[in-house]
Amino acid sequence: MKSAVKKRLGLVLMLPTLCILLALGSFHWFLAETRNDNAFINIAGLQHKLARELMTFTHMVHIGQEEDKEELMKAMAAFEENLGVLERGGRAMARLLPPLPAELMDELAAMKKVWVEIKPALAAIAGHPAASAEAPSAYELVAREAPGLADAAYALMLAHEDRSDRLRDRMLYMLMVVALLIFVSAMASIWVIRRYSEEQRMAEAKLRREKEEQEALVRRLKDAQSQLLQSEKLASIGQLAAGVAHEINNPVGYISSNIGSLKHSLGDLLRLIDCYEGAEDKLDDAQALAAVRALKQEIDLDFLKEDLHSLVSESEEGVSRVRQIVQDLKDFSHLDEAEWHWADLHKGLNSTLNIVNNEIKYKAEVVKEYGDLPQVECIISQLNQVFMNLLVNAAHAIEERGLITIRTGTEGKNAWVEIEDTGKGMDAETQKRIFDPFFTTKGVGEGTGLGLSLSYGIIQKHGGSISVESEPGRGTIFRVCIPIEQAGQKAA
Questions:
Q1: What Cα–Cα distance (Å) separates residue 330 from each residue in 240, 241, 249, 321?
Q2: What is the CA radius of gyration of the chain?
Q3: pLDDT single digits (tens) 334-357
Q4: What is the largest CA-CA distance in the chain?
């Protein structure tokens, strides 16, 4: 009996030891198999990014951006180097890596096949001017096959992540088996399991409470975002109101001045009329006639007539300017047009320019290089908001006196608008973040960091794109591109 107990006790003591050793061995195997997974996944993701950059730089070179050839060659070299590391192993991601696991070689071969097909075409594009005979055919090949290269890189990344998940699942299954063996090997583990279950219930209750708190926090953040967006709109309205008040003040000022001059001139005319009335019965009186002529000379009657006409004309012009500013404000806001309509982007740009004139006229000269634009299906009030943000930002980027150039045109089925300034420009790190909510380069209290984020969302809603090119000290170009006709929209 004692011998049987000892054997059982020895078995109970031995089985947990074996299970622990098995668990340690399994864990060591798992670490060995997944040690380089993150590096390989990062390289595959980098290949996907490089493939998309190859398409972008190829397009830029094709349309005449010769300076992008160097970037194209750099992207090719990086792609080739990473491909070699994946295939044969080598140094990457600050470590020495072995070749890619054998079960992922099919995905690597698919990516390499596409690369071999388009590499000569990329070299031809990088080595010849965009207008050469070789470039168009090479560009067509790259445009046709390069998306497949990006897809192959993305497929490799997904396959490696799937492999890592499978290994992780296998490791979990092995640990579960070990836990089961330990449970079976000792009755004392029942108490541990019960306590573990109780702790699990407590942990789940804690997680539920944390989840509820996080959901409440998300709701508060959404409310805060809505309030900030509303604040941005209100700030824009306040900015517009200040500009409109300033612009209206000028014509109203000289209207008031002209009315005063007109009143004085009319008084002189009345004096002359009174003089004429007194001289009606004395036209043959030389003295009276001389008095009339002297008075006419004193008030310069001919100039007075012309000046009265000029004063009235200027007053009419002032009233017309007030009317135009109000009309531009109405065109800018389009409060009665919150739906999709066919609109003239040039008219929207002009009305926006008139509205933000007070922000621009002291900082820059505006040059319009308008192309031929058809009517565009859009929500024009939202696009006017985008134009206002870009124009005001351009003015703020100019430190003393500069130039703002507005260009428009069409490209295929899209209409585009470019706003270029000669301001201080931005570095690459700033360009990556300018469309992030709450990011701003302005001082505290000068900007909310939502203008460009809101503009980005508006352009995305229109199915278009907004991009930026900038260099410190050389200025910035924002390019907005939207479809001329919206798919699925029914504009009036």
A1: 12, 12, 18, 14
A2: 38
A3: 544 557 889 899 998 998 888 888
A4: 162
